[in-house]
């Protein structure tokens, strides 16, 4: 378990560092994202869709406020087109993270975990609990990217990863985009309550998962 946490924390620190860099340089901020949407709303909706997809895909490499992007997608495009654009962008990010890590992730794993048995234990541990990690990864920023990379690194079957990723992503995107579509500058409450509710829901899932896992360990010992 220690080795698995070490690898996941290393990935998390990497993704978090991009947020620190962007925050300090001001290259990507919530206000700038809103400004980009404002500039594109007067043109064809396809350009707004492209901006959404690119922003959510870029979240794999740089820290993007994904929930804010999805709320704005619903606001500018409506719940259906906004949701489709969001799911495409998030799926591209997840698939790319999985693919890159499946191809090159062993270099990082070998570097962080020198012992061969511990590497095998790390892979086995994620294979046992990886499905839950992916399903609940939307509880916090960075964790979705970490879970996608871990899935590729530990050679989770691609179709299994895709199904888990979509089960986690599609409802999240649909709810966020719908909330954005019924929100406005004068009435931002749907977006605010949705953001709070989604976070609370996924954190509740983590709480239940941790309790169940702890109970199983106690039974085994």
Structure description:
Its main location: membrane. This is VTT domain-containing protein. InterPro entries: DedA_domain (IPR051311), VTT_dom (IPR032816). With 221 residues, this protein is an all-alpha fold. It has one domain (2-220). It contains 9 helices and no strands. The protein has helices at 2-25, 30-40, 45-58, 66-77, 79-112, 116-135, 143-153, 158-181, 189-220. The two termini are 16 Å apart.
Largest sheet: none
- The assigned structural class equals mainly alpha
Low-pLDDT regions: none
Helix/strand order, N-terminal first:
HHHHHHHHH
Q: How large is the share of residues in beta strands?
A: under 5%
Distance between the termini: 16 Å
How would you classify the quaternary structure? single chain
Molecular shape = globular
Rg, Å, rounded: 18 Å
The count of DSSP E runs of length 2 or more, i.e. the number of strands, is 0
For the record, the count of structural domains works out to: 1
Helix content: over 70%
Overall mean pLDDT: 78
Number of separate helices: 9
Produce the secondary structure layout.
Elements: H1 2-25, H2 30-40, H3 45-58, H4 66-77, H5 79-112, H6 116-135, H7 143-153, H8 158-181, H9 189-220
Helix pairs in contact: 1-7, 2-4, 3-4, 3-5, 4-5, 4-8, 5-7, 5-8, 6-7, 8-9
InterPro entries: DedA_domain, VTT_dom
Membrane topology: Multi-pass membrane protein
Main location: membrane
